[in-house]
Write a structure and sequence with these properties.
Helix 3 crosses helix 8 and helix 7 runs antiparallel to helix 8. By secondary structure, the chain is of the alpha/beta class. Strand 1, helix 2 and strand 2 form a beta-alpha-beta unit. Helices cover 33% and strands 13% of the residues. It starts with 10 loop residues before the first helix and ends with a strand. It contains twelve helices and nine strands. The strands form two sheets. Strands 3-2-1-4-7-9-8 form a seven-stranded mixed β-sheet, sandwiched between helices. Strands 5-6 form a two-stranded antiparallel sheet.
Length: 350
């Protein structure tokens, strides 16, 4: 999944810093996990991983990708649906084969163009919108009837969330839809198996505000990848959040935005970000911290460096900078001065 601020291009830099400047790291806490790519990287390198993100759809993805070490068995469900492959069953499900009607289909009613509900939004073509709805509703019904356990539930939800971007009529995020149908929207929504990494240890996933969990988790290293600018994350992924929760929210505006007041980050607010960093770093129970940021964030390089040196061991502080590549098209950013940064330090408790 493409994700704003995704760190796929700097994973080797992260690995190099951890390898060269830490000792006896076994447990890593990724406190702003997002899509989970950095957590998955740590998991693949055989660390025990603790993941957290305030967005529920991120929590769903990470419950499947990180907390599981193997694909669930679906023993009860297979007997119920008379199929060895639940994903094949869901991929071929039609609304006529379910108890649901279009009135139940929140995504169809609000995010695909239709006359029945006077909707003009073009996020999905109608057939894929209905398919998202009935799959999501069916997964929830299976959970309520105890046909699937928690691991199986999140595995299926994550498979659905992973499939949605491949048929969504967007340029990259969900803050707006395209005014013409992109070629991808003509594809049929298809759930696929998730590639599960087995690191032979326990991994844990949370869905909390970073400030509420920071002091409650003990780890050898905490990786911190907060928002860099004033753009809140949820507006860019609001439809994935709604599909994950399927809570029939009140929506508004051209894009059908859900309310997200309780999911706003202090790290996106210029007048609060400094205090947020100080409070976070001061409350962590860890030996090492590693922070991803860039030199055009809300905090300047000097400001963030000083915060880290004040709250951690100044003589262990290190700053690494390297060329930044844009999220959208992976082309080198036009500004030659824009740099991706990694801040490393040992904490006072370390």
């Amino acid at each position: 999944m493409r994700y704003i601020g995704g760190k796929s291009l700097i994973l080797q830099h992260i690995n190099d810093v951890v390898k060269n400047y830490t000792n006896n790291v076994n447990v890593v806490f990724d406190i702003f996990a997002g899509s989970g790519i950095v957590s998955a990287n740590f998991k693949s390198n055989h660390y025990s991983v603790i993941s957290n993100d305030i967005l529920f759809f991120s929590y769903v993805l990470n419950k499947a990708n990180l907390s599981l070490n193997k694909k669930p068995e679906f023993e009860n469900l297979k007997r119920y649906i008379n199929s060895e492959n639940p994903l094949y069953y869901l991929n071929n499900l039609t609304i006529k084969e379910t108890q649901y009607t279009l009135d139940d289909c929140f995504i169809y009613k609000n995010y695909s163009p239709n006359k029945e509900y006077n909707c003009n939004r073009m996020y999905f073509r109608n057939d894929n919108a209905i398919k998202i709805d009935i799959i999501r509703l069916t997964i929830e019904q299976w959970k309520e009837r105890s046909l699937i356990n928690e691991d199986e539930y999140f595995y299926l939800l994550a498979s659905l969330i992973n499939a949605v971007p491949y048929v969504a009529n967007i340029a990259g995020v969900y803050s707006a839809y395209l005014k013409f149908w992109d070629n991808r929207t003509y594809k049929n929504l298809e759930l696929k198996d998730i590639s599960i990494i087995n690191n032979n240890t326990n991994n844990y996933v949370f869905n909390l505000d970073a400030s509420n969990i920071a002091s409650k988790i003990s780890a050898d290293l905490v990786y911190i990848d907060p928002p860099y600018n004033s753009r809140q994350y949820l507006p860019n992924y609001h439809i994935l959040e709604t599909i994950a929760r399927y809570d029939y929210p009140v929506i508004h505006g051209i894009s059908g935005m859900r309310e997200y007041e309780n999911q706003k980050s202090l790290f996106c607010q210029k007048n609060k970000v400094k205090r947020a960093f100080i409070d976070l770093l001061s409350s962590l129970d860890t030996k090492y911290i590693l922070i991803s940021y860039n030199n055009e964030g809300l905090l300047s390089t000097d400001e963030l460096s000083e915060i880290i040196c004040t709250t951690c061991k100044r003589d262990t502080f290190k700053l690494f900078e390297f060329g930044y590549r844009k999220y959208k098209n992976k082309c080198t950013a036009s500004s030659k001065d824009l740099k991706e940064q990694l801040y490393f330090c040992e904490t006072l408790a370390g």
